[in-house]
Amino acid sequence: MKYLTFNNGVKTPIFGFGTYRIQPRITEGAVVEALKAGYRLIDTAQAYSNEAEVGNAINKSGIKREDIFLTTKAQTSGYRETKNGIDESLIHAQQDYFDLMIIHWPMSDSLGTYQALEEAYQVGKLRSIGLSNFNHDQVNEIMNNFDTKPVVDQIETSVFKQQKKMHKYLIENNIVHESWSPLGEGMKALFNDPTLLSLAEKYNKTVPQIALHFLVQENIMTIPGSTNPLHMKDNLDIFDFEFTAEEMETLRGLDQKRGIGGWPASMDQELDY
C-alpha cells in the first residue's frame, strides 16, 4: 500500500474501498470481504444509509480501530443540523471518531456546515475534515473563512476525466485530490480503449487495474467499490508495477473531460476551471 500525509499530519492509505450504491443489507458483508482482502480505508456517507453496516463490519473484523481509516460524508446544511448529524453518524457507525468527514457537496450554508466539522475536529470527534464536489472558488471560500484547511476534495476523476486544472490547484494548496467514480462506473469505452488494453497486456494486468494505477501514480486518493470479492482483490493488486514517464504522458492524453453525467447543473460544472 502507498500512503499519503494530509496537511494536518494525518496519514492515510491512498487506496480504499467505496460503499456508494451498495445496499445496506449487503454492506456489512461487502466491507468484511474488503477488509479480508487487505483494504484499510473504507468510505461511506450519511446519504448512503449504510454507516451502521460499515461500523458493524469494522467492529467485528478483529482489526485494531487505529489500523482502519474510516471516512464519512455530511449531507446536512448549516451549523446546527451538521453538528447533530456528526453525532448521529458516530452513533450509527458505533465509533468514537471518524478519521475523515467531508461535506458531500456544496450546501446552501456550506460555511455553517464546515464550522460544525471544524469544531468536531477540534474536540477529536473527527481526525480530519474536507470537501467533496467543491470547485476552486468554493474551496477558496472555505479556506478564506476558517483556520482549519480541508485535507481533501473528493471529485469525479478517472482516466477520461482527469480534472487536470483542479488537480494542479489542489496540489498548490496542499490539499489531496481524491477520486470518486475512478472507473467511470464501468463505462464501456474505458474497457475497450486501445491504450489501456495495450498497457494491460504489457504489465499482465486488467484494464481496470491499469486505470486505477494511473490515478494512484498521480497521487490521487482512489476508492473503487465492488460487491464481488474477486474484483475487490483485483482492484487492490496494483502496487507491483510503475508506468514509465512516457506512458504516464500517454495516459494523460486520454483525458476527454468526460464524466458519467446526470448531475444537477450546479454540481456538473467544470471543476477544472
From TrEMBL:
Binding site for substrate: H104
This protein's UniProt keywords: NADP, Oxidoreductase
InterPro entries linked to this entry: AKR (IPR020471), Aldo/ket_reductase_CS (IPR018170), NAD(P)_OxRdtase_dom_sf (IPR036812), NADP_OxRdtase_dom (IPR023210)
UniProt keyword annotation of NADP present: yes
Signal peptide: none
Active site per the UniProt annotation: Y48
Residue ranges constituting the NADP-dependent oxidoreductase domain according to the UniProt record: 21-254
PROSITE patterns noted in UniProt: ALDOKETO_REDUCTASE_1
Any one GO molecular-function label of the UniProt entry: oxidoreductase activity, acting on the CH-OH group of donors, NAD or NADP as acceptor
Pfam families, sorted: Aldo_ket_red (PF00248)
Site feature Lowers pKa of active site Tyr, where: K73
Gene3D superfamilies in UniProt: NADP-dependent oxidoreductase domain
Highest taxon above the source species: Bacteria
Record carries keyword Oxidoreductase: yes
Family that this chain belongs to: Belongs to the aldo/keto reductase family.
Name of this protein: Aldo/keto reductase
